[in-house]
Amino acid sequence: MDQKVSPEYIQTSLAASLTLGFQEGSFHRNAKLKGLNLLLHYEEGCLGRCHFCGLSRSRREDPKGKTFIRVDWPLYLLEEIIQRAKGKDQIHRVCISMITHPRALEDTFYVIQRIREETDLYISVLISPTLIHHENSLDSMKKVGADRVGIAIDAATPELFDQLRGKGVGGPHQWAHYWEVVRMSVNVFGRFQAGIHLIVGLGETEREMMETIQRGQDLGAHTHLFSFFPEKGSPMEKHSPPSLGQYRRIQIARWIINEDLGSSSQMKFDEKGRLIDFGMDIHPLIQMREPFMTSGCPGRDGKVACNRPYGNERPSGPIRNFPFMPEREDIEKIKEQMGMLE
Ligand code: SF4
What we know:
Layout: E1 9-12, H1 14-19, E2 35-39, E3 67-68, E4 71-72, E5 75-77, H2 78-86, E6 93-97, H3 104-118, E7 122-127, H4 135-144, E8 148-154, H5 158-164, H6 175-189, E9 194-200, H7 206-219, E10 221-227, H8 244-258, E11 268-269, E12 275-277, H9 283-288, H10 328-337
Parallel strand pairs: 2-6, 6-7, 7-8, 8-9, 9-10
Antiparallel strand pairs: 1-2, 1-5, 3-4, 11-12
Helix pairs in contact: 2-3, 3-4, 4-6, 7-8
Bound molecules: iron/sulfur cluster.
Iron/sulfur cluster binds at residues 35, 37, 93, 95, 124, 126, 150, 195, 197, 224, 296-297, 306.
């Protein structure tokens, strides 16, 4: 039977599909995608069972209806994606998400190599640490053409990680191993050439989130921030997203740490672990606007290329990660969300 699976076929985010002209449509407020997100695809799906993920095997919905970080992932021929990406100056970077599957590592090498042969795009890999046991695998990714990797730690504490991704759901992932792979990645790709993904709102306190962002920073990995959104049909569909106030505080505090303006030890938290003092005046950072933009791997201009338009929210809802520079009126709303308007 003719199966449409990787590496010949690969999924793209809906945003990538629109940008490459596979589908018609434009983005709310004319956001422009700068990074193409691709996702390996197999009939068996991902072998992980992460509680919050739209790809999880514990999800109830029909596989055809699956979503992943809140967007649809249509399937196309890799060669056609490459041909369409070729002349698009708007695109700076491509990211290959591995998923946890026995063939994923080998197929990732192939996909990196094909993109490297045909385009001058920067290449990130969102790796599956559970499949990585030696630095050799990372070395090979670098040799065939990747310049960065991301590690989706997602849950900010070992307890939440275990509960949502590990033993608690009968899943294969292990917190300590994920951090070991962060260390290996920094070793192979260089300081701040590896990044970690963290999802705000899985049940961690703001203090715990900031301590984990600091841990990444100390190891040489910036944080790429996501806001939890309940995937329909996933076991966490009834869990609420974090409040906008919480998300804004974490965005600013992440900026402070990743830009090396301060550290989590200088921040103060209340008895519930809520951030009450950033250790510096945040008004200039709010006026600067950039801390509220999507955090991710950079493009040719050194600015974030992986801007994931509307990956965390409905276009109609308040924007959490701005895929463009927020406007002055967005900043007024942000101040309101942070309870900062007199
Ligand atoms: S930030 Fe974007 S480009 Fe970088 S690893 Fe994560 S998903 Fe990929």
